[in-house]
Amino acid sequence: MVRRALLRAAQSLATDHSAAACTHVADLAELLAHLGQAVPFDVQTVFYRIWSSGEQRDPALLDLAVKLGFDVTHLRQR
Asked: What is the DSSP letter of 69?
């Protein structure tokens, strides 16, 4: 159930990049981690497509990318 909610929340980022939307995704990812599960690949894929088509340097999205398992050090160093 958490995995499906996380996927839906990640998909909603396509139209809503607000702090609240990012926090919701991050909270669900953290809940999943507390359950001993990794962020599903389909969630990472959805997020990456949205993230790479927009502003990759947005601080909220950068933090969220890290929480979803992405290495963003190359983006933070520029």
From this structure: T
Specify whether the CB–CB gap between 5 and 28 falls below 8 A. Answer: yes
Digit-coded pLDDT (tens) for 13-70: 999 989 999 999 999 999 999 999 999 999 999 999 998 887 777 788 888 999 999 9
Q: Within the chain, what is the greatest distance between any pair of CA atoms? A: 38
CA trace torsion 49, 69, 58, 46 (10° rounding):
20
Residue 12, Cβ neighbours under 10 Å: how many?
Answer: 16
Tell me the whole-structure pTM to 2 decimals: 0.88
Query: Helices marked H in 1-78 — which ranges?
Result: 2-12, 19-34, 41-52, 59-67, 73-76
